[in-house]
Specification:
three-stranded mixed beta sheet, mainly alpha, 308 residues, Rhopdopsin 7-helix transmembrane proteins
Length: 308
């Protein structure tokens, strides 16, 4: 419920006010976003059309790429437009952006956790892998992840909507997020900030610690595998660990501290909202022979069908 809310729109200061730099950022973010759409769409289509990529690992990779696409789409198009036009956003659009940002961010965290669970079962319980990680179980896990993400985002929005915004309405950021909005609320936000930080910090920190611990166990268990099996499993696990570190470290820095902002916050946020969704498909394709082979077959079939 809104209390004494006189603000109908916010002004986003963006990354810079320099007209020349804005044009450079427009090109930069447009290329990044198009690359994100292309890379993740290619993975989605490849997994959906390839019979060779039917294992649970690629089932979760499909949803990770879908999540990355949606996560980037909730941020990048607005950034691209704002780089050339005025940076105003309505109150309702701001709330939708916050909900989308935290929904897909939470969903990405949970999918990364599920991918770690999948690798643990595949490496530590290989004989029972297909029975434990059946398609039904994987679908149930993803369904639970969607529900948890919705609850997480709803809690964030409920806490923000409980604050009164009487002015000013200038957000020193390029997107609507929790910390910048707390600074604009015309009331004491200590308790609200504590609840918001607890919600996000618990999700990010606990998930990160659990993921790192699980990969330590996985890597330790590889000592009993053959050299070939160890090499293949190690390659997959390293890819996952790189993705986890690239996504979690910036998130923990942003969301596990009091309602204060630093000059570096914008660039760090750019990295995990724009950079990570682009980097993920590169990591999973360049280090995964099965995905690369499936993509080649898909491309070959397409060329053959066009020639006929």
């Amino acid at each position: 419920m809104l209390l004494n809310n006189n603000v109908t729109e916010f002004i986003l200061l963006g990354l810079t006010q320099d007209p020349v730099k804005k044009k450079i950022l427009f090109v930069f973010f447009l290329l990044f976003y198009l690359g994100t759409l292309l890379g993740n769409s290619l993975i989605i289509v490849t997994i959906k059309t390839s019979r060779a990529l039917g294992s649970p690992m690629y089932f979760f990779l499909f949803y990770l790429s879908l999540c990355d696409t949606c996560f980037s789409t909730s941020i990048a198009p607005r950034m691209i437009v704002d780089a050339l036009l005025n940076n105003t956003i309505s109150f309702n659009e701001c709330m939708i952006q916050i909900f989308s940002l935290h929904f897909f961010g939470c969903l990405e965290i949970l999918i990364l956790v599920l991918m770690a669970v999948d690798r643990y079962v595949a490496i530590c319980k290989p004989l029972h892998y297909m029975s434990i990680m059946s398609r039904r179980v994987c679908s149930m896990f993803v369904g639970v992840a969607w529900v948890v993400s919705c609850v997480h985002s709803s809690v964030q929005i409920f806490l923000i909507l409980s604050l009164p915004f009487c002015g000013p309405n200038v957000i020193d950021h390029y997107l609507c997020d929790l910390q910048p909005l707390l600074e604009l609320a015309c009331t004491d936000t200590y308790v609200t900030n504590l609840l918001l930080v607890s919600n996000s910090a618990a999700l990010c920190t606990m998930s990160f610690v659990m993921l790192m611990f699980s990969y330590v166990i996985i890597l330790y268990s590889l000592r009993n595998h053959s050299a070939e099996g160890r090499k293949k499993a190690l390659s997959t696990c390293i890819s996952h660990i790189v993705v986890v570190i690239l996504f979690f470290v910036p998130c923990i820095f942003i969301y596990t501290r009091p309602a204060t902002t630093f000059p570096m916050d914008k660039m760090i946020t750019v990295f995990y909202t724009i950079g990570t969704p682009l980097i993920n498909p590169l990591i999973y394709t360049l280090r995964n022979a099965e995905v690369k082979n499936a993509m080649r077959k898909l491309w070959s079939k397409r060329l053959i069908s066009e020639d006929q």
